[in-house]
Amino acid sequence: MTTFTTWKFETVDGADRAADTLKQVRSDGLIKVEDYAVLTWPADADRPEVKYENRDNWRAAGWGAFWGVLFGALFFLPLIGAAAGAAISLLNKHMQDVGITREQLDAIGKQVGPGSSALFVVTSERDLDLVAERFRGHEGTLIATNLVAGEADEVRQAFEG
After folding, report:
1. Which residues cross the membrane (predicted)?
2. How far from 102 is each of 32, 153, 159, CA to CA, in Å?
3. How far apart are CA 152 and CA 145, in angstroms?
4. Is the Cα dihedral 59, 52, 129, 97 positive or negative?
5. What radius of gyration do the chain's Cα atoms show?
6. Helix 57-71, helix 84-98: angle, nearest 10
7. Model-level pTM?
8. Per-residue pLDDT tens for 74-117?
9. What is the DSSP letter of 98?
């Protein structure tokens, strides 16, 4: 099962530090990371900065489009008003394919703002217990996931603990 998760951090560098842990977990073979993106939003900036993980050109094109639609609709297009409607419809289609609801998208848009950061991850084939253990102490908040309730609670506790 493909899993989408979004973590919010109360610091601008929190998501970068969690991404470093994610890379280590991936290299240790505990999780298959399809792709991820790190969003940082300095307190004095008008909009966030986004860094993508691109491993090869074929995947980069597909995931680049996905991330572009996601971040564009959530953080950039609302600034231009009605023209955002078509992009939001396209985003809803992509998000349904990944298993993310409109409510989760709304939560992301409302909770991630200046002075914070977020890690967006698409994974599959994971050892949830070991992965959660590696992320203990990162102090992020899980704001969107398509994990089932028990799995989401387990991952949430790892970040809180």
Report:
1. 65-91
2. 26, 21, 24
3. 7
4. negative
5. 15
6. 120
7. 0.75
8. 766 554 444 455 555 555 565 555 666 777 777 888 889 999 99
9. H
